[in-house]
Every structure is written in C-alpha cells, then in structure tokens.
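To the team - adenosine-5'-diphosphate complex, inputs and output below.
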Amino acid sequence: MATRTSNDLELVHLTKRYGQTVAVNDVSHIFPPASYICLLGPSGCGKSSTLRMIAGHETVSDGAILLDGADISHLPPARRGTAMMFQSYALFPHLSVKDNVAFSLKMKGVDKETRHARAMKLLDLVAMDHLADRLPAQLSGGQQQRVALARALVTEPRVLLLDEPLSALDPFLRIRMRAELKRLQRELGITFVHVTHGQDEALALADECVVMNNAVIEQAGPPRDVWSKPRTEFVARFMGGHNVIGWDGARYAIRADEVSIAAIGLPAAVTGVEYQGDRVAVTTKTEAGEEIVSLVPEDRFFAAPINPGETVHLGWDQGRMHRLEA
Ligand code: ADP
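Output:
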C-alpha cells in the first residue's frame, strides 16, 4: 500500500452512470498531495463528471471519494473541504466584490467584521483589494475571474476544483491567469484539480497530468513523462508533437521534432507546410499511406524551402522510437 500523507485526495472504484451512459467507469487514483492536477481529455471523456462528483454537485453511482482517508462521497458540498470555481463566474450582480467574496461566510453565520476582513485578505491575494467596492458589471472578464477565485477560496478549502476556468478568456489573458493560478496554488499549498481540454495548459500548469479517455484514466504522471513517454496511441496523439507509425507489427511514437528531412531516407510526399514561428511543420504522406509530420527549425526550413506536392526523404534515430501498448 502507498504511503499516506494527509491531504490525499483519492478516488476508489469511482463510477458515474447517467441512465445507460457510463460517464466515469471504475476509476481508482491517488492524487499527489498539495499539487496542481490537470484533468484532460477529449470532450465527453468524463472530466466534468469526475470533478462534479468530487465537488458534491453530482451523486456518485458507485465507489468512493476520500479526502485525508475519510469518505466524503455523501457529504453536502459545503462540508467536504472542497470548493469549486466555475467557468461562468456567476457572481451576484447586485453585490459588491467584497460581499460576493464574503457571501458563503455570511451563509455560515460569520459576523460581518470577520467575514469582511477575511474577504479583503483573499482579495489582496488575487490583487483585487483596490476594487472591493465595485459591482461585478464594473469589472473586466479577467477581474471577474479573480473575484470568483477569491470567492471559492474564502471557505479555506483543502481542494480547489476548477472547471475550464480559463476558456472564456482571450489567449493573452489566459496565459497571464494561468501563471496566477499556479502561483496561488504554490502559495496556498493546497491541491488544485483543474479540468481543461488544452494540452498546452496542462503541460504549463500541472504537477500531475491525468489524461482521460472513454470514462477511464488512460495515463497519469508528471507532464514531461506523459508527453514524452505516452503509453498508448491515444495519449501520443492527444498530447501532440508525436507521429505514430507501424513498424514490425507494432505501433511506435516518434517525436515530430526528431524527424528530419534528409537527402536519403523514407520517401514521402509533402501534403502541407505550416509556419509556426520558431519552426515549420511539414506534413507528409508515405508510400504506405502513413502521415508523418516533421518539425523543422525555421532557419533550416527557409534555407531550403519545401512546397506541397514535392517528394522528400524522412529520417530519424530508430533508438528514439517509443513503443506503444497495443
Ligand atoms: P467531459 O467533461 O470530459 O466533456 P462529461 O463528464 O461532461 O465529459 O460527460 C461524460 C459523458 O456523460 C458524456 O457522454 C456526456 O454526454 C454524459 N453526461 C454528462 N452529463 C450528463 C447528464 N447530466 N445527463 C446525461 N448524460 C450526461
């Protein structure tokens, strides 16, 4: 049995059924304590159902959710030690920023002075204390996001649950907010479980990436392991940056940046050329009909540009091929 530290969030044979649909199928997993966890996978794979069951916004069909060894599966959301931050910030439009953040404390009967002091401390943490008296409508999207974060954190959760918290933001703000989330998680030293369908977001944020597919966890681990050592073809394709090729009756992954275009090698027809700034993605089709992408550093590409329709030769170090499970 694995060594237990406090703060462990654990899923034990967790299942969620909606009628005939099995959204989460017998999932068991121990999340590393006080870490930034990203749950990712394609739409419909069961991420939100998992998160909502942890939060208590969805009933558990089978199995259990443990926090610090105690079964929280049947507790009401407010008594679990978890808090959820929603994608749509759902702030109360008629309440000031400060009262929005203090709201759940008011419901718990905390006196006004204490709850306002606590709300101001959280607003300070998300750098929104100077706008405490504004109404939500007087804030930008990014500022509303921070208030929603403070509101979720005011209950001092052990686990903060975030359902695609950045998807409503423009790309520039999204990158800034994700750095903020990471900083907050580190400062607070609690577990964040963040659902995303963005691989880049997961790689940038996570201490642990949990990749789901078809209602189960397909692979979990540090982002670098999951990205560079995908266990299955699904993970290799979903995390991106890899080609999957057949070889000697097995399937292998080879990184696209390790496929080079050379004078000799596997002949392939160029089907697409995409400029990506620091590199150029050259998509090709081999005679066997396999699609192989080569990521060429931009200076190398432009020294001898290639066009769709041309035939090139592909090469890579066979020792760098990574065998995938069937
Ligand atoms: P994800 O968050 O990965 O997109 P979900 O957990 O939302 O996946 O959904 C997993 C599966 O469960 C999907 O097939 C979805 O259609 C189904 N599902 C989700 N919520 C409900 C619901 N309230 N009623 C019926 N089916 C649902």
